[in-house]
């Protein structure tokens, strides 16, 4: 057996939850790698909604999708992930977040605990039974530990009657390595759409 690196494991979890023809969300489009991966998983009849607050990320993601001829499978939205409910009303099979900042861009533009938790709450109500939300938490930057702590506090208090929450991390790596938090919905809640 070989332990999967953090990003490999995130992809594995998403692929286990999302089937062809379903809806997925990339809450932090970034350079478009996760949006592309989700577009491949959902197939021709599925769809991906991808969010970012930076035009640079929207352009990079759109171009990556066009380069792979998968732009018809995704809607790339210039808005914060906390507004996901304005754009997505269907049941989703999964969602992914890469918390932190856009690699290669302004490190002062970061995700925050407040908006991330708002997005998680919206996505949990849309999430199918046995669907999954994967958060890759980068916390080595300024503001990263504050967001990490807020998110961990929030997900640790989700009722186990409805959700399973997993933390996947390597304990002996230096320099604040990223880790995963995965939330699986195990039972319908009273917040779910009828």
TrEMBL record:
Record bears the keyword Transferase: yes
Methyltransferase listed as a keyword: yes
Record-level GO BP terms: methylation
Keyword vocabulary terms for this entry: Methyltransferase, Transferase
Chain ranges passing through the membrane: none
Listed GO MF terms: methyltransferase activity
Domain of life assignment: Bacteria
Pfam families listed in its UniProt record: rRNA_methylase
Span of the signal peptide: none
Protein name: rRNA methyltransferase
């Amino acid at each position: 057996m070989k332990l999967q690196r953090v990003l490999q494991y995130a992809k594995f979890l998403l692929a286990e939850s999302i089937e062809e023809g379903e809806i997925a969300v990339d809450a932090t489009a970034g350079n478009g790698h996760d949006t592309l991966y989700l577009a491949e998983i959902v197939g021709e009849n599925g769809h991906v909604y991808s969010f970012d607050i930076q035009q640079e990320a929207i352009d990079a993601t759109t171009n990556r999708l066009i380069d792979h001829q998968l732009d018809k499978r995704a809607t790339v939205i210039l808005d914060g992930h906390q507004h996901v409910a304005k754009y997505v009303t269907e049941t989703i099979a999964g969602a992914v977040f890469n918390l932190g900042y856009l690699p290669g861009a302004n490190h002062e533009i970061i995700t925050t605990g407040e908006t991330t938790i708002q997005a998680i709450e919206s996505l949990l109500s849309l999430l199918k039974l046995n669907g999954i939300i994967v958060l890759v938490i980068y916390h080595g930057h300024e503001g990263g530990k504050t967001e990490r702590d807020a998110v961990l506090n929030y997900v640790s208090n989700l009722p186990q009657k409805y959700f399973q929450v997993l933390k996947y991390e390597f304990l002996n790596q230096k320099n604040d390595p990223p880790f995963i938090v995965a939330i699986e919905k195990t039972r319908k809640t009273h917040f779910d759409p009828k």
